[in-house]
Amino acid sequence: MSVINWFKYIFWTSLIFPACFNPSPKFRPAGKVAGADFYKLKFTTIDGNHFDFAALKGKNIVILNTASNCGYTDQYADWENFYKQNSENWMVLGFPCNQFLGQEKGSNNEIASFCKLNYGVSFPLFMKSDVKGKNKNEVYSWLTTASSNGWNQQQPTWNFCKYIIDQQGQLIAFFPSKTKPQDAVFQNVIQQLAH
To answer: Is 103 in contact with 69 (CB distance < 8 Å)?
Structure first.
């Protein structure tokens, strides 16, 4: 690697990528509550079935925007493992999206097959859709509109950003792409929600 390329690499990996694509985690400020009911949301699963979010009442939820050709794609395994170990109290929901450098080009059928074959994904996946911008789906509209969720406007900055919903349907946290279930910052949220 040339010296110039080395400096470009260091500049990109230590300054640009972390600042732009891995913002700091965000947590719900005290006293903020959702202005719109999370449990009234509905969306279509990756296999074309209607999914009513009212079915999620009483669960803590991790919502991920996913992609099959990303450096974070291996997180499918992390979140599948988390889901299997915690399915009594937690739900994981995956939203495939092709908005980040075209890293989810496949059809819904291809995405579902890829996830099952390579990672054994059993948590619900939804049809491929936009998660930011004017055409974002209704779930991400709720997640990123402060008047709906009570406080947050942070849109996904890259694939595998996480939004955490508590058992009362309140958005309590946003985590960037790099956060995994075993990370201390996420484990702290699990412990808080267990009380």
So the answer is: yes
**Residues that are catalytic:** 70
Cβ-proximal residues to 118 (8 Å cutoff; 6+ apart), any chain? 76
- Quote the Cα angle for 119-59-94, to 5°: 30
Helix (H, G, I), strand (E, B) or coil at 88: coil
CA distance 56 to 90: 9
Give me 159's structure tokens: 């694939």
Global pTM reads 0.89
Q: Where are the alpha helices (DSSP H) in the chain?
A: 3-11, 17-21, 75-86, 108-119, 138-143, 146-149, 184-193
Query: Which pLDDT value is given to residue 1?
Result: 57
Phi, psi angle pair for 175, to nearest 5°: -125, 145
Q: What is the pLDDT of residues 154-165, one digit of tens each?
A: 999 999 999 999
